Amino acid sequence: MSTSSSSTTAPVGGPSLPQKRELVTAIPGPRSLELLERKKQSVAAAIGITLPVFVEAAGGGVLRDVDGNTLIDFGSGIAVTGVGNSAPAVVEAVTAQVAQFTHTCFMINGYESYIEVAEKLNEITPGTHEKRTALFNSGAEAVENAIKIARYFTGKQAVVAFDHAYHGRTNLTMGLTAKSMPYKSGFGPFASEIYRAPMSYPFRDGGISGEDAAARAILQIEKQVGASNLAAIIIEPIQGEGGFIEPAPGFLPALAEWATANNVIFIADEVQTGFARTGDLFASNHENLVPDIMVTAKGIAGGLPLSAVTGRADVMDAAHVGGLGGTYGGNPIACAAALATIRTFEESGAIERAREIGTTFRGRLNGLRAGDPRIGDVRGRGAMIAMELVDPTTKEPDAALTSKIAAAAHAAGVVVLTCGTYGNVIRFLPPLSISDELIADGLDVVRDALAKA
What is the pTM of this model? Predict the structure, then answer.
């Protein structure tokens, strides 16, 4: 079996990989199948693999598996490798740091790179006010700490999250997350004092404006929780796992204004949307939103585990010394990677590239939508784009069709991810280092999968 697509050959981080799709075996190939069997015998069954190929090298816009197949990467490890896999600046920075020292625990012996990352995040996140930052390992860990900080500062306990939200897999963040399967089912009881409000979902809202959707949510919050009990509102400016739902204009600013007026901390969860992913450095910037606290992770460190909570100095400094921290939080290797990653975003035209990618994806997908009523909606910003698939008559979600299209794309060598509360959304999160030729070829594969489904 041999399937290939023509594209440029470009040196990338790690090995120099030809930037083209090429299949030399079925997907998955024999070596990947062997490793999959070993996984079954050694790894907990609850840890699944969306596309069971095992990668040996990656860079630019491609992944090469252990069977020699080269796949187009429309996933970026769920929006992590925005600068590209093994980006040269990241590799150089990490290599130098490993040679110096790998760990001290910042709470025991500090190091400058932690401070440099904090200084940089204080500088580039929205707002010109004085800020402070704390570093952690994962998005869920950062969300938990943002809630801790908000509760300590306000002296209140309740937290509001939104329909379709995803904030993590730990106990508290499962409570914040809306979708039961696979994230919550069977894992309770969950943390208390968590409430849910209706989201602005333009495709399914019947045309309600952002301001009216916010008024609806605020009314529910006031009646069911009460501002005097509410420590924080937490929301993704564009929801990720929930289906790449971008709220109607005005929704987020209205919520933030109400929060400020009622001594409620407004937390923007930019774990998936941050770092140039949406065509701005942060998605909050699209509506000039200035959160009290912002949570970041994923794209922050080019593939190394790092997350951050950045916020108003008075809020972040409220807790007692020793109240925040963790053994690995702000690990020196991850900090080195983050500084190189952020520098690459700033110097490489990544924001402009994300906008170009978004224009290309939206143009192609909207072209398909014009002739295919099963595509109910195309939405998103920058290199964070999705299409929602529906029954063409009823507009009800079509999860079965979504699964078929994703499976066909995988078999043809294109990594795509599904998401959404109803399991009917295909999302596209390519690395910003991907070429136009790879985008075109990958979208041709999606087009053909739609036609055959």
Answer: 0.95
